[in-house]
Amino acid sequence: MQKPGGKVYLIGAGPGAADLITVRGARLLAQAEVVLHDALVTPEMLALCPQAVKISVGKRSGQRSAAQSQISQQILECAQHYSLVVRLKGGDPMLFGRADEELTAMEQAGIEYAIVPGITTAVAAAASACQPLTKRGIARSVAFFTSSTAPGETSDTRIPECDTLIQYMGGKEAALTAQRLLASGYQPDLPVVVIENCSRPNERILRLQLKELEDGLSDREGPVLVMIGEAMRSRFGQT
Amino acid sequence: MQKPGGKVYLIGAGPGAADLITVRGARLLAQAEVVLHDALVTPEMLALCPQAVKISVGKRSGQRSAAQSQISQQILECAQHYSLVVRLKGGDPMLFGRADEELTAMEQAGIEYAIVPGITTAVAAAASACQPLTKRGIARSVAFFTSSTAPGETSDTRIPECDTLIQYMGGKEAALTAQRLLASGYQPDLPVVVIENCSRPNERILRLQLKELEDGLSDREGPVLVMIGEAMRSRFGQT
């Protein structure tokens, strides 16, 4: 196969705020001819590439969205027509970003690519809440996990064993996580921090206890991250 | 207590490359009057703040270094004399960054602060190695952990249970991790990716199997990250 001329940059946009992308990512966005972006990428972020053709290949929980194979196909088509293509994903592309499918498609088509990491939501949420994920003598390991609702995968994910637990896309699934943790002996008053719309103007931070999480999170609209563990205990006495 | 005038920004520098800091972090560095930085922060990164007084408060594994309480004290002193203080840490400050001690010290002294997240080494290493940390049907959870060699803490950390395991500062401790995983039934041919000096000009990527990691990593000089799990299996047939 003849090698197409375009190079694809798989870039992490970070949690949402336009200045939480990396300097490298922002520079490439400003040079891109075309940007294929997720629905969760903010308009402020897309303002960094006014010159580019923008294609939403949005996937968002609970909404109809393009199948992953279609997205990969769109990337390949762009690489045939443009020399600098950006595939912009929320957070970091290598953590819950379905990068494997897109990398495999590009490799099979012989397309040159590079990956630019992004701020994954957990560390931005830790910064917003001023709660370190690790803490000397308290928390030395952190698990990042998600519950899958994809066809063909069971949703009864085992909960990882780590000092700090971070559930991505945890809005609907957090109650089940809390139930499982309580059933396996976790303390009912274990601190929990929930972040909605991390780093955005409508960011909300909720502090509660594990036993309260069991009842579920109502009234959540944006992307939600749930952080559980002793490291989440407030230094100011709440929770 | 009278509130001092200075504001302190606790900023994640990311893995090392100067353009893998966030746009927000770079902007604040360019405005800082004083920058207190770790030994692992690169000269290229410090070139982003030519105007600032630079103070190395370096801690580096195996070298003599300032005690954490001294570092916190230096931050407080800087906040009394300067209006814009940056505390620059490698990676992300909230993950294995000892942020808790520094935040507590600032809160007790009534000093205003904000936290700017950074690219944690694991996602930069995943980008360098082109190995997603999560993979559909293969890896849905990722643990970040470290073995402590701090006084008063035992080094016999239990290994977290997750699909992908990432050991930070894993140069010396990785052999022990491999021994424990093999003893608890992990497959000897499980893929391992080791990254040294991630994102820097002298970056090295080593691919091996869990049974080889048991013999230890010789000849490592820079900071080392060890990634273990089925998600590390190469798409090109190695390992």
Concise account of the structure shown:
The structure is a homodimer of 239-residue chains. Chain A is 25% helix and 21% strand.
- What assembly state would you assign to the polypeptide chains in this entry? homodimer
CATH topology annotation of the largest domain in chain A: Methyltransferase, Cobalt-precorrin-4 Transmethylase, Domain 2
- Could you tell me the number of beta strands of chain A? 10
Strand order across the largest sheet of chain A: 3-2-4-1-5
**In CATH, what is the class of the largest domain in chain A?**
Alpha Beta
Distance between the termini of chain A: 60 Å
Known CATH architecture of the largest domain in chain A: 2-Layer Sandwich
Shape of chain A: elongated
Main sheet attributes: strand count, strand direction, barrel closure of chain A? 5 strands, parallel
Low-pLDDT stretches of chain A are: none
Largest contact between protein chains? A-B, 62 and 62 residues
Radius of gyration of chain A: 19 Å
Number of helices in the DSSP assignment of chain A: 7
Q: What is the domain total for the residues of chain A?
A: 2
How would you sum up this structure, described in words?
The structure is a homodimer of 239-residue chains. The first copy, chain A, is an alpha/beta fold. Chain A folds into 2 domains: 110 residues, Tetrapyrrole methylase, N-terminal domain (Cobalt-precorrin-4 Transmethylase, domain 1, 3-Layer(aba) Sandwich), CATH 3.40.1010; 112 residues, Tetrapyrrole methylase, C-terminal domain (Methyltransferase, Cobalt-precorrin-4 Transmethylase, Domain 2). In chain A, α3 packs across α4. The longest helix of chain A has 14 residues. The mean pLDDT of chain A is 89. Chains A and B meet through α1, α4, α5 and β6 of A and α1, α4, α5 and β6 of B.
